[in-house]
Structures are given as C-alpha cells and as structure tokens.
Amino acid sequence: MSQTYSGGSQNKLFKAVLIGGIAGALISLFDRGTRESIQNGSKKAGSILRDVKNNPSYYTDKWKQTVDDASGLMKEVQDDISTLSQKFNGLKESSVEAFNLVKETQDDLKEIGSRVVEAGEELTGNTNDKLTH
Fold first, then answer.
1. Which terminus of the chain, N or C, has less C-beta within 10 A?
2. pTM for this entry
3. What does the alpha-carbon distance between residue 50 and residue 38 come to, in Å, rounded to a whole number?
4. Which residue, 77, 57, 58, is CA-closest to 69?
C-alpha cells in the first residue's frame, strides 16, 4: 500500500495556521487593555509616519549618517582585527624563538656544569697530588 502526498496538504497547513492566527488576534481584541495598547501604538506610528513625510531630508540625512558611522566602525573593527592577527603571528614566532633560545641556553648550562665538575675533579686531583708530594 503506497500513499502519495500532493502539494495540497502543505497549503492546508498554511491556511490553518493563518486562520488560527486571525482567530487569535480577534479573540485578543476582546481585552480592553489590548485594544488601548493597539490604539496608542497606531497613534505613535501615525505620528512618526507624518513626521517622516513632512521632513524626508532630515531622515534621509540621518539614515546616511548612521550608515556612514556604521561603515566607519566596521572598517575600524576590521583594521583592529588585522592588527591583532599580525601581533598574534609575531607573538607566535617570538615564542618559538624564545623557546629555542631557552633550549639552547639549557644545553649551554649543562655543558658549563659538566666543565665545572671536570675542573673540580681536576683541582681535587691536583690538590691530592700536591698533598702527596
């Protein structure tokens, strides 16, 4: 038994969601506070739209200034990230060089220590020779 699904079932879901949303919105309007809130929001939106309509150049300039500021800020952030990346790479190379320098110094100190031990043995051996003579 096989079933085939047609594209119509997706349309039913969309319609049901849409009808449910509309029904929920209508039911929410039974509350007085919701109605007053929507009324106040609509008045504020209307006031803003009238202001934009009366002063389009002000808002256009303000929008351009905001875009320019954001663009400049993004460029500064990009430059900072680039500088930070370069410093990190320099630090990475410096730490490798410092590690190698410490390793070389450790080898040199071991060699110096062994020489000091040899010199001490020779001195004690010479001292014993002098004492025996």
1. N
2. 0.44
3. 18
4. 77
Structure tokens at 103: 């390793």
Structure tokens belonging to residue 7: 């594209």
Instruction: Report the C-alpha gap between 57 and 69 in whole angstroms.
Output: 18
Asked if residues 48 and 54 have their Cβ atoms less than 8 Å apart, the reply is no
pLDDT at 128 over 90: no
- Nearest-10 crossing angle of helices 56-132, 32-54: 100
Residues 6+ positions from 37 with CB-CB distance below 8 Å: none
State the average pLDDT over residues 22-28: 96
CA-to-CA distance for 59 and 63, rounded, in angstroms?
6
| Residue 69 in tokens | 């500021």
Count of positions (residues) in the chain: 133
| Radius of gyration, CA atoms only, the chain | 41
